[in-house]
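Structure tokens please, single chain.
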Amino acid sequence: MHVPDGFIDAPTSLAAGAVAVMGVGLCLRGARRELNERTAPLAGLVAAFVFAAQMLNFPVASGTSGHLLGGVLAAILVGPFTGALAVTTVLLVQALLFADGGLTALGVNIVTMAFVTVAFGYPFFRLLAWAMPRRRDLLPVAAAVAALVSVPVASLVFVGFYSVGGTVDLSVSSVAAAMVGVHLFIGIGEAVITGLTVASVITVRPDLVYGARGLLPRAQLELRIPTPSTAASGGQP
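Here you go.
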């Protein structure tokens, strides 16, 4: 979904850039409430994982590409503000060091891939998890569904940008069909990866999964480290 230079006109790119700058400022303030000495290292790991996942690109149309986004996964693990910052950092590094996405289109890329996926996908995850039975093993299911839906939603937002300031001689309908069609399939892959990753982390360190807070009883979120006496007795106190 990385947008190259020249695909969106200057006024639209500037407007998206302004929104991106304001959004980053908001996320910086929000991340202060989400991060602590335990979760700060996880934020770095999440950013690295998203960076690696986004290296898998699928060509879409006229220079654009589709790939795993990672916004919902990042938001669930470290919080929506921190998650959006993690994806934004990945996009910035990709644009500056790997020429993956144009610098003039960086605002468009940040809005669609970092902000939209988190702003839509994380509340959707919370809604799904709230409606489900309060069981730890069901949270990865809600995460997977939210990730699946967030990807085509982000592609539709890109289509909105294109309809306002697209510079390529392609109809909006053809771009929409290409983007949404491909990203439905990409969403399936993102759902699988998101669900498996959340399941792995919540099994090993449930206390680190930000999105589980307020959804599960405190006892299910506590990290239980067996003492020598309980380990010797097979886990019995």
